[in-house]
Amino acid sequence: MKKLKRSARLVEMTQYLLIRPHTLIPLTTFADRYSSAKSSISEDLAIIKEVFEEEGLGELQTLAGAAGGVQYIPKVAPHNALEFVQQLCRQLEQPERILPGGYLYMSDVLGQPMILNEAGKIFASAFARKDIDVVMTVETKGIPLAYATATYLNLPVVIVRRDSKVTEGSVVSINYVSGSTKRIQTMSLARRALKEQSRVLIIDDFMRVGGTIQGMMDLLQEFKASVEGVGVFVESGEVEEHLVEDYISLAKLSAVDAKSKQIKVVPGTYFNNVTADDLS
To answer: HSE-up of 228 (CA within 13 Å, CB side)?
Structure first.
């Protein structure tokens, strides 16, 4: 690559880091790429690190030593996350979204790349410190959200199916009780899709009681895998007790009145441990 002016190099380095989250990049990679001394690269990274932290864009971690380098850890500042979720809540409170049974129509929201991108980054920020191997979801609506999250964590996605397919080879299937319909349903996962003893992050679009997520947890036991976290886009707040206790939600559907067409959606458990200082 031709030698760039420092201003152009900073822009190119920033872009290089942003599209490679959670990837350790040796300083020699940048030094060779821009035909620059490591000392100059270190100064550039210090500038980028400062901007990332001041603007709440994430962290730039430096590892010293021969095997060291730099890696970008995506983060969302709490006040930015709250602003996004508050806008999401207002969008979900539109009266025409009410469906029979107290559900919300969210397919259009989950089809908007900007919303998925920001939600995925918030989940990645929440679970950045976890040691995770894969992101898991169940088909179908949670798939885009799982991929958005996995992009910022630089991890593969594993999709649990409602029924097995011949093209997936040998599968593990379990029966589980749906938390909302109380019906026995089936989910399956190809044996080749997940290595045994994997560390898994579960992402789901909506949790009413938690039967589907609990089903995925039970399925993971067949692979001797561990659940390192659970992220939910929207949870129902009308349920007295969820089957899943340890989870993070972005928004909570706290009330639905089908007669008056009134919907109340509030920020979820993601903000439970956020202080007033964090939001300022």
So the answer is: 19
Reference 206, options 127, 268, 115, 279; nearest CA is 268
Weakly modelled stretches of the chain, pLDDT under 50: none
Phi first, then psi: what are they for 188, rounded to 5°? -140, 155
Among 162, 166, 191, 165, CA closest to 175: 162
Helix-strand-coil split of the chain, %, nearest 5: 40, 30, 35
CA distance 265 to 251: 7
- What confidence score (pLDDT) does residue 222 get? 95
* pLDDT in the model for residue 178: 77
Rounded to whole angstroms, the Cα distance separating 192 from 164 reads 13
pTM: 0.93
Number of C-beta neighbours around residue 4 at 10 A: 16
